[in-house]
Design goal:
alpha+beta, 7 helices, 22 strands, 37% strand
């Protein structure tokens, strides 16, 4: 066997070593080049995640601050802030007995001072002062003064009074939009339940957008605040206060037999109606001219509707806004779980871009988002087909 020269072996090893080093360098360079975009992408993602974490930390900080405010809110401090602005309203209601004699019964309620265009006024409920004679309002220190009724509205259960009292007695509360409220927010009611003056009760907002019957029984008061703050006779007309001492509602009613369930007219209703009540003595409500029933699964299944929500039109007032727009009432009387309703009428499922699920939704939309003379587009279902009707909103008679 022939032995290879030693120098050739060394040259071969050197060549292989140099080739290995060059290959390793080229491979590293290619790896770095190929992975650079990935690293840049990961860096970008990490930066985005850090931004999201910072946003979440900010939200958490805001939530902690809000919870601390709620936990630290002193009810006594709120009471001290508003007590001198709440009044007890008293008066007499005359009636005639079977002998033709006039008798009187005492009524009482609550009210609170506000400022409108630098004029001090008192807001209360319509049903507190309706038919009242010899009315007066008493402040916490016992001083009482007569008042004049500037305006009142049965349909929103509101009245605005001009107190005949010196300016130094009239300390107005701040009224803010009830749109600031959320379910679960803490609220307090200040009033005179059963004549027990300047009583504070507390609770939470348990629901929004409710509707309650007016004292006349013919219409609904819409957008009502439901609260767990105890409300009793004599509270009517008093303020519903948020944790910052601002008026967000006017306590109005309780349900007979209910526990921890009271209602307040939203402050937005006061803000909307106040200018007309002062200048005209009344307020013009939007009017559709229909009666209806809220549809649910049971009703839909019983009469063959494809929708499990909406307002099924029961009657349409002749020559009213809905009638002029061609809206149709039910014609077939049916009984569903003991309830008699008319089937076959239009099913209102939307107004504009808003879904209408119940009569509460319909009443609230009209009260908040429409005015007399405005054209509003209704979406209705008729004989299985969907169509739109343009309704010119009228004035409630």
């Amino acid at each position: 066997m022939t032995e290879q020269p030693r120098g050739n072996s060394l040259r071969t090893v050197s060549f292989l070593l140099i080739a290995f080093v060059i290959g390793a360098y080229v491979g590293y360079a290619l790896y770095s080049y190929n992975t650079q975009p990935t690293i840049s992408t990961l860096n970008a993602r990490v930066g985005a995640l850090e931004g999201q974490v910072a946003g979440l930390q900010s939200q958490l900080s805001d939530l902690q601050t809000r919870n601390a405010t709620l936990a630290g809110a002193s009810l006594n401090a709120l009471y001290e802030q508003v007590k001198d602005s709440v009044v007890m309203i008293k008066g007499l209601i005359p009636s005639t007995n079977i002998l033709g004699q006039t008798t009187y019964s005492e009524v009482l309620g609550s009210g609170f001072v506000i400022s409108h265009n630098e004029t001090r006024l008192v807001v209360t409920n319509f049903h507190v002062v309706d038919g009242m004679v010899n009315g007066s309002m008493a402040f916490l220190d016992g001083d009482a003064y007569p008042f004049q009724v500037l305006g009142k509205d049965m349909y929103s259960d509101l009245a605005v009074l001009l107190p005949l009292a010196p300016d130094n007695k009239l300390k107005p509360l701040t009224v803010v939009s009830s749109e600031t409220l959320r379910v679960g927010d803490q609220v307090v009611a200040v009033g005179n339940p059963y004549g027990l003056e300047s009583t504070l009760t507390s609770g939470i907002v348990s629901a929004l957008g409710r509707s309650i019957q007016t004292t006349s029984g013919n219409y609904l008061i819409s957008g009502v605040i439901q609260t767990s703050a105890p409300i009793n006779p004599g509270n009517s007309g008093g303020p519903l206060i948020d944790i910052f001492g601002r008026v967000v509602g006017i306590t109005s009613a309780i349900l007979s037999g209910s526990q921890n369930l009271g209602f307040a007219i939203p402050s937005d209703t006061v803000i909307r109606a106040l200018p007309d009540l002062i200048s005209k003595g009344s307020y013009s409500h939007p009017y559709l001219g229909v009666t209806g029933v809220s549809v649910d699964y049971i009703i839909a299944n019983a009469i063959g509707l494809n929708y499990t929500y909406g307002v099924l039109v029961q009657s349409v007032v002749r020559d009213g806004p809905a009638d002029r727009a061609g809206m149709r009432a039910g014609t077939q009387l049916v009984t569903i779980v003991g309830q008699q309703i008319y089937a076959g009428g239009d099913l209102i499922v939307g107004i504009g871009s808003d879904r209408i699920k119940t009569m509460d939704d319909l009443s609230s939309y009209l009260a908040v988002h429409s005015v007399p003379g405005q054209t509003v587009i209704f979406t209705v279902v008729r004989d299985g087909s969907t169509l739109t009707l343009a309704v010119v909103i009228g004035i409630r008679p």
